[in-house]
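Customer escalation, tier 2.

The customer says the design service returned an amino acid string that "doesn't look like it belongs to this structure." They asked us to rerun it and document both sides in this ticket. The original structure tokens are below, unchanged.
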């Protein structure tokens, strides 16, 4: 069954947790004992009926404060599709959680309180969706029951959001805006008679029909995770290469180029979950055999020969810093691109990005460090090349993480932007 990954974001009291709880409840995704526990907890809190927000606000601190802090992953399914929700926090101090939670999403669901309209956090939530090039953005104007289901109020908020989003909306990104009431379950999984003036799909209909195959249209990329020695008849000194198709498609008979080295071969066979297949697309974990005995190892990149990735030793990138210890240009870090890990230095921080105003602040000289939850444009230099694409051209092959060499913790996440190929740069 098809799988959709989505990320949710909203300001305090926008009703995000209630909306997710409503989806779980109305799709029959809540176990009986869990539902009984929520009923008891709702009574203790004096709630009228079920407090569906308790289905997702799992941390004790969140329940005490009534806010979402951590990224909670929620699973549910309908007859048409399986879903994984990354329920991300909306506060500026948790920008890192929003970025990491939304990094694998195909859909971003942004909530707006109909009473308040667009707020500072709304700008930040959409900027992150644009930064990550999430293909589909669904804006739920929630709590319509508290504005008497006013079409004029909804239209004003929708117009304001479109005007705000236009300057940073990525090419091809699909935008849907719809009115809902998560508390009463209106327009979440079923249409509401109070919103008869809205003739579009419900939230669930949008999620069930959202395109999940955008990555299959990108240039083909597979990074080898493991070299296998198949045991089957005739497999004497034959090697297979296992990995996940990051983007594009691979089929038996396709020509491929292997980086590094730009060696060429052809796909002789494909296997997925032990079954022989003829075609694999983005998201499939496969093993494949080539017609030629060439040097392929862990970290090698198999790509379509018409648009192969270039080796990059120095490039610009947008980085979101995730660590309590600031990023400093004088330090050596590890940069991990897929399974490939190399030494790296941030040679310059050229500008901080204000995720509320969407503006980059450039100073001369540039900032001397990058702190927790800050985003900036930086210059990166590597000890050896990686075969990455610009994130705008191929997001799965244009993202990387930065690792602190002292603690081995993930310190930052980055997205390749303008880059140049350096054939002979000294090692760090």
């Amino acid at each position: 069954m098809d799988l959709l990954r989505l990320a949710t974001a909203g300001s305090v009291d926008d009703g995000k947790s209630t909306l997710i709880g409503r989806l779980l409840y109305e799709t029959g995704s809540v176990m009986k004992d869990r539902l009984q526990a929520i009923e008891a907890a709702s009574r203790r809190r004096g709630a009228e009926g079920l407090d569906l927000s308790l289905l997702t606000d799992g941390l004790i601190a969140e329940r005490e404060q009534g806010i979402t802090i951590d990224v909670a992953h929620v699973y549910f399914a309908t007859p048409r599709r399986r879903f994984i929700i990354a329920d991300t926090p909306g506060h500026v101090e948790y920008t890192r959680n929003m970025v990491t939670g939304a990094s694998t999403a195909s859909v971003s669901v942004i909530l707006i309180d109909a009473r308040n309209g667009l707020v500072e956090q709304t700008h930040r939530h959409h900027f992150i969706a644009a930064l990550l090039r999430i293909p589909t953005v669904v804006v739920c104007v929630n709590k319509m029951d508290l504005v008497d289901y006013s079409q004029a109020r909804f239209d004003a908020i929708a117009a304001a959001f479109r005007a705000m989003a236009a300057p940073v909306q990525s090419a091809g990104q699909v935008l849907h805006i719809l009115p809902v009431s998560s508390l009463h379950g209106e327009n979440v999984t079923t249409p509401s008679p109070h919103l008869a003036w809205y003739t579009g799909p419900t939230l669930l209909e949008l999620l069930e029909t959202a395109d999940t195959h955008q990555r299959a249209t990108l240039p083909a990329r597979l990074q080898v995770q493991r070299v296998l020695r198949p045991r089957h008849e005739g497999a004497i000194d034959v090697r297979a290469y296992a990995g996940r198709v990051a983007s594009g498609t691979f089929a038996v008979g396709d020509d491929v180029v292997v980086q590094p080295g730009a060696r060429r071969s052809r796909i002789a066979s494909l296997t997925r979950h032990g079954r022989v297949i003829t075609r694999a697309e983005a998201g499939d974990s496969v093993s494949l055999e080539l017609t030629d005995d060439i040097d392929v190892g862990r970290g090698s990149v198999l790509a379509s020969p018409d648009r192969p990735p270039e080796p990059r030793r120095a490039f610009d990138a947008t980085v979101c810093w995730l660590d309590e210890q600031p990023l400093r240009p004088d330090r050596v870090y590890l940069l991990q691109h897929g399974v490939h890990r190399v030494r790296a230095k941030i040679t310059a921080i050229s500008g901080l990005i204000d995720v509320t105003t969407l503006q980059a602040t450039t100073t001369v000289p540039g900032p001397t460090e990058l702190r927790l939850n800050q985003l900036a444009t930086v210059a990166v230099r590597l000890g050896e090349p990686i075969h990455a694409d610009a994130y705008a051209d191929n997001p799965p092959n244009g993202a990387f993480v930065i690792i602190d060499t002292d603690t081995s913790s993930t310190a930052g996440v980055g997205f390749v932007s303008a880059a140049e190929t350096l054939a002979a740069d000294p090692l760090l």
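Tier 2 assessment: The sequence is consistent with the input. Residues 59-69, 421-427 have pLDDT under 50 and may be disordered. The chain has seven helices and 22 strands. Sent an explanation to the customer and offered a walkthrough call.
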